[in-house]
Amino acid sequence: MQALSKFNPLYWMAYDGLKMSQFAGYRLFPVELSIRPTSKYLLEDKQHSMANHYSALKRARQTEKKTVANRANKSRLRSALRSMREAIAKGDKDAAKSALSAAASAMDKGVQKGVLHKNTASRYKARLSKRVKAVGAAK
């Protein structure tokens, strides 16, 4: 008899106090065939999801992948903005200009990836370029 995973209903029968030795001589086909192959009992990726239908499980998997990608893109954008603000705070005009181009590129990528709205990116770029010009004028 094969090892039972927690997605198999027989596992829960054993867990509820029935001994597996009671099932040793029986053929378990009727129970195993009564479960659809797309059921939550046979899909291993069911662990992190409340979904029961195959399409909902697929959506849950897609959401996890997209969440990871969005988190990475957002982090990249925030890092570029942070380095930009640090360069402005130091008062170094050349470093601020190079950081502005890197931040603008990161914002445009964020717009392409759907992490940032295009008007928000435009507003950020305008305000940051204004601050970079102020750093140049102060010196």
How is this structure best summarized?
The protein is about 65% helix and about 0% strand.
**Second-tier CATH architecture of the largest domain:** Up-down Bundle
The main pleated sheet reads as: none
The general outline is elongated
Instruction: Quote the distance from N terminus to C terminus.
Output: 80 Å
User: What would you call the structural class?
Assistant: mainly alpha
What does the radius of gyration come to? 28 Å
Structural write-up:
The chain folds into two domains: 9-62, no CATH class; 69-138, Methane Monooxygenase Hydroxylase, Chain G, domain 1 (Up-down Bundle), CATH 1.20.58. The protein is mostly helical. The protein has helices spanning 9-15, 29-33, 54-90, 93-113, 118-138. The protein is elongated, with a radius of gyration of 28 Å.
Keywords:
139 residues; 5 helices; 2 domains; Methane Monooxygenase Hydroxylase, Chain G, domain 1; 65% helix; mainly alpha; 0% strand; elongated; single chain
How are the SSEs placed, and which strands pair?
Layout: H1 9-15, H2 29-33, H3 54-90, H4 93-113, H5 118-138
Helix pairs in contact: 3-4, 4-5
